[in-house]
């Protein structure tokens, strides 16, 4: 697997990372054995970058990742802070943030957090800027090695890019959410900030996992957050109404070459953007990781196909995307 440098951090991340939200049970119940099998397969497939958050399963995702890390300490772990009820939405203090990060470190193990990301914290808190000075202090103390931000909107991304020590931005980017390409990627590159692409498959729509017949477990966010009732509307299915998204998928399929699957085109489309450091695909089954790594190794899409997909997004998809852009 190829590595890419994460901005100015010096960290080399694998092009495919593993998103570990599902290990907290937000894609349906999951046993520890199944979680460890997913982590193990990712490692066997060459994945060395793992993304999680303190709130995924109220610490469960970090806990199981911590267990895995004990045997595989050559991996890079990014976690997130700022959505726990002790902080969100309006109780941010330096002490509270530090406690949150220390709790993550306890669950993950090791001496310090490789990369901590602010987890979709409110815009006014970012604008105030104090939170970035706290992170700088934590870095100096050695509690964290690097910090970045996971954000919802392009405005939030641009605001975070004003911080000179920011290492990374985590953004929703996929064929159904292309705004970052024109609005943020070049700016991030100029500031030497790495980009981590989340929701590459738009929660499984672009991988073919979600069809009109598909049903979801009660605790799967694709069941209870389709319209953003539980958290951001832009997150589940990348902010598209499911029925509309399924009809857009049919249109999209017709644009792709016969010899390349939608899932392969999705991963290649992302990795064809040189500003993207790592694509963090979720996976509910070990074999999905193998496939995702294989897709990453295929040839780039043609310029002509990129243009077709950009036009498709502007004309047909963009008007339907809900939530902050
Ligand atoms: N606010 C934030 O910071 C934030 C928010 C959301 C996510 N994230 C991060 O981004 C990561 C990825 O997000 P995500 O898992 O929601 O979205 P995703 O990667 O777009 O979708 C994951 C789903 O795609 C399907 N899939 C993956 N590989 C496949 C393959 N090879 N073939 C067929 N289907 C495949 C699986 O669906 P099935 O389960 O149906 O098999 C899987 O659960 C998360 O784990 C988390 O680390 C961060």
Give the topology:
Elements: E1 3-5, E2 12-14, E3 16-19, H1 32-44, E4 49-51, H2 60-71, E5 76-81, H3 94-108, E6 113-119, H4 123-128, H5 130-141, E7 144-150, H6 154-160, E8 168-172, H7 179-183, H8 185-190, E9 194-198, H9 221-224, H10 242-255, H11 262-271, E10 276-281, H12 286-296, H13 303-317
Parallel strand pairs: 3-4, 3-10, 4-5, 5-6, 6-7, 7-8, 8-9, 9-10
Antiparallel strand pairs: 1-2
NADP nicotinamide-adenine-dinucleotide phosphate is lined by residues 19-22, 27, 51, 80, 119-120, 150, 170, 198-204, 207-209, 235, 263, 280-284, 288, 291-292.
Briefly say what this structure is:
With 325 residues, the protein is of the alpha/beta class. Helix content is 40%, strand content 15%.
Write structural notes for this entry.
This protein has 325 residues and is α/β, with parallel strands linked by helices. It has one domain (3-320): NADP-dependent oxidoreductase domain (TIM Barrel), CATH 3.20.20. It has helices spanning 32-44, 60-71, 94-108, 123-128, 130-141, 154-160, 179-183, 185-190, 221-224, 242-255, 262-271, 286-296, 303-317, and strands spanning 3-5, 12-14, 16-19, 49-51, 76-81, 113-119, 144-150, 168-172, 194-198, 276-281. Strand 3 (16-19), helix 1 and strand 4 (49-51) form a beta-alpha-beta unit. The radius of gyration is 18 Å and the shape is globular. NADP nicotinamide-adenine-dinucleotide phosphate is lined by residues 19-22, 27, 51, 80, 119-120, 150, 170, 198-204, 207-209, 235, 263, 280-284, 288, 291-292.
